[in-house]
Write a structure and sequence with these properties.
- The chain has 433 residues and is an all-beta fold.
- Helices cover 1% and strands 50% of the residues.
- A hairpin with a 2-residue loop joins β1 and β2.
- The longest helix is centred in the last third of the chain and has 4 residues.
């Protein structure tokens, strides 16, 4: 048998490149548990993968003796791999149609670019969990990013056994990079305001912000579904941006919001600052940061560069006083957290969750400096090559509140909380004059 892959665009059909469709054993990966229960907007097109043939591998433990038209049975530790050539970059719904086998709960996750030269594991769905069933079920997550072109992918079974019938990748939103680039002057004696959002209106200014959406785990096994332009999760109240995470909302474990300037405007050099009050309970992960405008999918990170102006996790915040810790970090191909050598600094902040504080980055072609309330506490100045210094790439600003995940949930989730709020008074960008 072999697998066919088709791209369906309304009533037009395209054939996609397929090669080496197979399954084998691999070590399982434990991604965060999350069930998908939200529907999204009308899809643009879908990639549909259905079983037609299998090819042997030297490291596989067994070969499934499936016949034409039959499904493929995978057990814990096994994977099914495909080569898929995406016609368009964007955010996708990933659906695996299959029947859980046996009495145990099953779990599936999808790995992208398994042939990458960095030895990375790009988990682009997180763990999709389903209970035993005698009927075909739809295992799905939304918002997974895929660039245009060839993707070598694996569908892993990390728990139980599943009889896989087909895999569908449905476009939900095309990728759009920022076309407006503001390059700030970095020489002079005074800062001059060039862009801002004071959140003085009654609604979020969609000429400045767009929303990331979905529940694919965001590379960190996070629990929340990020909603798109939903006031319950992101709104303006009395001159303040409120990003709210809500437990058990819309059938999800959590909902929240992730706002970005991507597709609107990106920034190169200058000073970026925001005034914020973070939440305090165990399980939250609040952040104000930037991501390079060249990011399309996970293979682009950290080559696109990332500047974490402020990150805060709830388990480091004192429940009574609101005192906590601000984290500043940059991620580059040479230094990033998944290889354990990221370059970070921390600052103890009095009443980080009970009072307003201003977090900033001052960025030139040779250094990145981070500040809290005007006091510098972080410096990154490694510029030997493009792996150390990808920060000639314009950056998009991101504001988000995650729940759980590899860092936010590192000490578990407070079972008593039902919501968390990240408050932002303003976001401003300056240049020197």
């Amino acid at each position: 048998m072999k697998y066919s892959l088709e791209l369906i665009l309304k009533n037009t059909f395209y054939t996609l490149a397929i090669s080496s469709i197979y399954f084998a054993c691999s070590s399982s990966q434990d991604s965060g548990e999350e069930e998908v229960k939200m529907d999204a907007s009308e899809p643009t097109y879908s990639l549909v993968v259905e079983a037609e043939s299998l090819h042997d591998l030297s490291d596989q433990s067994r070969l499934n003796e499936a016949v034409l038209g039959e499904s493929v049975t995978l057990t814990e530790g096994e994977w099914l791999a495909i080569d898929a050539d995406f016609e368009q970059a964007g955010r996708y719904r990933v659906e695996v149609f299959g029947t859980p086998i046996g009495a145990d709960t099953s779990a599936i996750w999808t790995e992208d670019y398994y042939d990458n030269p960095d030895g990375r594991t790009y988990d682009v769905t997180g763990k999709i969990v389903k209970s035993p069933s005698s009927e075909i079920q739809n295992y799905s997550v939304e918002g997974s990013p895929f660039n245009k072109g060839l993707h070598k992918m694996k569908v892993h079974v990390s728990r139980g056994s599943v009889d896989i019938d087909k895999i569908v990748f449905t476009m939900m939103k095309p990728h759009k990079a920022s076309t407006e680039i503001l390059t700030q002057n970095y020489e002079g004696s005074e800062w001059e305001l060039v862009w801002s959002d004071e959140f003085d209106g009654t609604q979020i200014d969609q000429s400045k912000w767009t929303f990331d959406f979905g529940d694919w785990g965001w590379g960190n096994n996070e629990l929340q579904y990020y909603t798109e332009n939903r006031p319950e999760n992101a709104r303006v109240e009395n001159g303040i941006l409120v990003i709210e995470a809500r437990k058990g909302d819309l059938g999800n474990k959590w909902t929240s919001a992730r706002m970005t300037t991507r597709g609107k405007v990106a920034f190169l050099y200058g000073k970026i600052e925001f005034k914020a009050m973070v939440p305090r309970e165990r399980g939250n992960w609040a952040a104000g940061w930037t991501l390079g405008n060249t990011y399309v999918d996970e293979k682009d990170w950290p080559y696109s560069g990332e500047i974490d102006i402020m990150e805060s996790v709830g388990y480091e915040v004192d429940d009574e006083t609101g005192d906590g810790i601000a984290h500043a970090t940059v991620h580059t191909p040479a230094y990033y957290f998944k290889i354990g050598n990221q370059i970070s600094s921390t600052r103890e902040v009095s009443k980080i969750a009970a009072d307003w504080h201003t977090y900033a980055v001052e960025w030139t072609p040779s250094e990145i400096r981070m500040l809290v309330d005007g006091e510098p506490y972080y410096l990154y100045d490694k510029t030997a090559n493009e792996k150390e210094w990808p920060f000639n790439i314009p950056q998009n600003i991101i504001l988000n509140l995650a729940m759980g995940g590899g860092w936010g949930g590192a000490q578990g989730m407070d079972p008593n909380i039902t919501d968390q709020k990240l408050l932002i008074d303003f976001v401003r960008v300056y240049q020197k004059k």
